[in-house]
């Protein structure tokens, strides 16, 4: 399959795809915000089911992460990074930081100090999400509000 041509994201290892998603969704946030966005993905992969199977399944599920939407300006940036990872990694310290966070979240030993075990959703504080009233708000970090499913 032409994963590199058709979908360069599918060709990435989980740590790089997770880093790229954190970069696309939260590169302007402080470390705690980046970790929280990554935690949503980790938690969804752990739960599985509707969320998708594994890191790739969760991230690449259509309409879950705005940075992968076709009309999102981030999509072109992320596509370029995915196609030329090594070049961008060498030049972009924020991408390197997102990759370090991603590896820490994926490493069970590091996950406890970086991750939030309860969150499964987030949104920017500027918008209202259709699902927001069905969730319990856990915290606000920077420009994002984080939620968990109500018990």
Key phrases:
single chain; 151 residues; mainly alpha; 8 helices; 52% helix; 11% strand; globular
Outline, from the CA principal axes? globular
Number of beta strands: 3
Distance between the termini: 42 Å
How large is the radius of gyration? 15 Å
Task: Name the beta content range.
Answer: 5-15%
Please count the helical segments.
8
Strand order of the largest sheet: 1-3-2
- Tell me the helix content: 40-55%
Q: What's the SSE pattern? A: HHHHHHHHEEE
What's the rounded overall pLDDT mean? 90
- Helix/strand class: mainly alpha
| Poorly predicted runs | none
Largest sheet data: 3 strands, antiparallel
Estimate nothing, just give the exact number of structural domains: 1
Write up what this structure looks like.
With 151 residues, this protein is mostly helical. It has one domain (9-118). It has eight helices and three strands; from the N terminus they run ααααααααβββ. Strands 1-3-2 form a three-stranded antiparallel β-sheet. α2 crosses α3. The longest helix is centred in the first third of the chain and has 17 residues, at 31-47. The N and C termini lie far apart (42 Å). The mean pLDDT is 90.
């Amino acid at each position: 399959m032409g994963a590199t041509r058709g979908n360069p994201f599918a060709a990435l290892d989980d740590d790089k795809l997770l880093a790229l998603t954190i970069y696309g969704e939260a590169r302007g946030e402080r470390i705690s915000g980046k970790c929280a966005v990554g935690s949503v993905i980790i938690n969804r992969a752990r739960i599985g089911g509707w969320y998708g199977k594994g890191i790739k399944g969760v991230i690449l599920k259509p309409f879950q992460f705005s940075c992968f939407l076709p009309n999102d300006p981030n999509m072109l940036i992320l596509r370029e990074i995915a196609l030329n990872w090594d070049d961008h990694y060498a030049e972009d310290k924020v991408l390197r930081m997102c990759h370090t966070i991603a590896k820490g979240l994926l490493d069970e030993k590091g996950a406890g100090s970086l991750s939030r075990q309860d969150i499964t959703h987030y949104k920017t504080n500027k918008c209202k999400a259709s699902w927001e009233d069905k969730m319990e708000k856990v915290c606000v970090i920077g420009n994002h509000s984080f939620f968990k499913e109500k018990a």
